[in-house]
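Q: Here's a chain of 276 amino acids. Please give me its 3D structure as tokens.
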Amino acid sequence: MKNIIIYIVIILMIVLAILLALREDTKKEDKRLETLNYINKNISFFNYDYIDRYVSYHLKNKKLPLKRVITEVNIGLDNDYYQNTKPAPNKQTPKVLVNKYHYLKEDYIPENLTEVYEGYSKPGMYLVDKAAEAYKKMAEDIRKEGMKIRVISSYRSYQYQKKLYERYERQDGKKKADKYSARPGFSEHQTGLVIDIDNEVLSYEDFGKTKEFEWMKKNAHKYGFILRYPEKKEFITGYTYEAWHYRYVGKKIATHIKKHNITFDEYCAMENNKTK
């Protein structure tokens, strides 16, 4: 009789363990459904193809909010820079994304390149026509307020960037060069939508100390330009802060980026990956 009681107790314990496990599985499933429901309602740029990457990144960064996890994975930050790279989306448009995860091929040349008006630029500078027109208007308007900006670098071919990067690499080594210079094919300058500027007085590296920079912070978005590599966003962009480097994206996108204090990388991560 004693053995029978022990046997029954063991059976009951096993049954209880199974019921508890089933209950726990139900809780997990409910939690999963709750999370997916939240995502469907609040995070339109969730990419179901990246589920495993989201989970892995979340486990390594448990303090990050879910929305931030999804944004950073969409950018590609769950991989090292220059890993898992893809062709740049939206080529030949102001929305083209070129960064350390998206590249342009060696033969890529922007359409409708036009020379920047020399009154507001060094000689031989070229931009896509829409960007050139917007820059000219911006340069005219800042002069009306007693200040000056000048383009010192704009469109660069793949070959030009290759020579430039290799020079920096010989000078400082690859690790350091990668912080301030793009590898060939990964430079935004190849899009024909980028300007590096100075105020014709100080070095471009000191542009952040000028009144022209303060004007640009307040007004560049009105002309469709954004500060491409802002301060305290180095982890997102992959580059050190560059007060002189501006990217044309169009007025609508530039205004959105300024309003939400985000980078172009974050904007694309949230817009280009929206659920269709």
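Q: Can you summarize the key feature?
A: The chain has a mean pLDDT of 89.
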